[in-house]
UniProtKB/TrEMBL annotation:
Keywords: ATP-binding, Nucleotide-binding
Record GO terms (molecular function): ATP binding; protein kinase activity
Domain Protein kinase residue range list: 33-305
Lineage: Eukaryota, Viridiplantae, Streptophyta, Embryophyta, Tracheophyta
Protein name, entry field: Protein kinase domain-containing protein
Annotated ATP binding sites: K60
Organism, as annotated: Triticum turgidum subsp. durum
InterPro entries recorded: Kinase-like_dom_sf, Prot_kinase_dom, Protein_kinase_ATP_BS
PROSITE patterns: PROTEIN_KINASE_ATP, PROTEIN_KINASE_DOM
Domain of life: Eukaryota
Amino acid sequence: MATLSDLERMLSDESEGPKALPLSLLFDITKGFSDDLKIGSGGFAVVYKGILGNGLVAVKRLNNSYMIDEEFLQEVKCLIKVKHQNVVRFLGYCADTQGVAETYNGNFVMADVHQRLFCFEYVPNGNLGAYISEASHGLEWRKRYQIIKGICEGLNYLHQNNIVHSDLNPANILLDNNMVPKIADFGVSRCFRDNQSGDILTKVVGTMGYMAPEFFSGKIKLKSDIYSLGVIITEIVTGKRHSEDEDVIEIWRNRLERSKEHSQLEQVKVCVKLGTECTEFNPGKRPPIQLIIDRLAEKKKYGLVHQNCSEFDGRARRKGFQ
Ligand SMILES: Nc1ncnc2c1ncn2[C@@H]1O[C@H](COP(=O)(O)OP(=O)(O)OP(=O)(O)O)[C@@H](O)[C@H]1O
C-alpha cells in the first residue's frame, strides 16, 4: 500500500502509475473528509481536496456503499490504463471494507461497511460550465478554440482505447491554470443498486441536454459521445446548446483579433458546422473524432471527410463498437 511520501512522489513524477491507497491516508489528507475541504458533490460521490506536502489532489468518495466489487474493479481497470494531458490523471484507488457490529431486525450482526474512493490530480480552475458565455462576452476566441481542441484530443484518446465516456458535459470538463481542459468522470461506474429496493440495478448515464437520442433506447456507443461533444462545441462557441449559425458568425466577426480575423473566422465556421454535424440524429452520420481533429487542425480536406467518415463507419461496425 502506498504511503504519503509515495503519493507525493507520484504527484511530482508523471511517469508513476496509479496505486492502491489506504483509507487512513485518504482520511488524513482530507482532514477526516472535512466539509472545509469539500470541492463539490455529484449524483454519486463527494469530492474533497487532499493536502500533500507538495501540492493538492482530489479525493472522490463514492456515496453508495452498495457498489458491487466487480464494478469497482472494472472502473479501476479502465482508469488505470488512461494517461493523456487532456484527461484527468488517475493517482489511485481505495476499496476498504470494515466489519461493524450492529442490531438488525432484532439480531446482533456483523455488517460490512464498504468505502470506495478514487484519487485524481487536482485541477484548480473549476469546470467548463463556469466559462460558458455568449459570443459577445466572456472568453476570447483563442481560448475557446484551445479548449475545444483539447477536449477533442482527450476524447480521441479515450475512443482510441475503446472507452466510451457516456456522460460528456461541461461539468465533467475541468480546466487547469492554463485553461487546458481535462476530461473527468469517465468510466466511473454509474451502475448502482437502487437504494430503496436494495436489489434492482439502475443504469443511470448521461446528462439531459447532452445525451444522444439513442441513449433512450439504451444503446450507448462511441458516436454517442460525439453527440455530446457537438452540443458542447456549440455551447462553447455560442453560449447556447443549439444556435442560429449566421448570427453567431457575425458576432464573432466583430470580436476577433484584427490581425487574425480571417483565420479565426474560418475556425468559428468550422466549429459551428461541427456542432451541427456531431448532433445528427443518426449516429452513422456523425463524424468520428479523428476527422473532427483533422478539421480543427485546419487540414482543408472537408471534401474527403464524408468519404472517410463512411469508410470509418463501415470498419467500426465490423469491429462492433461504433
Ligand atoms: N480532479 C478534480 N479536481 C478538481 N475538482 C474536481 C475534480 N474532480 C471533480 N471535481 C469537482 O468536484 C465536483 C463534483 O464532482 P463529481 O464528479 O462528483 O460530480 P459531477 O460531475 O458534478 O456529477 P456526476 O458525477 O453526478 O456527473 C465538481 O464541481 C467538479 O468540478
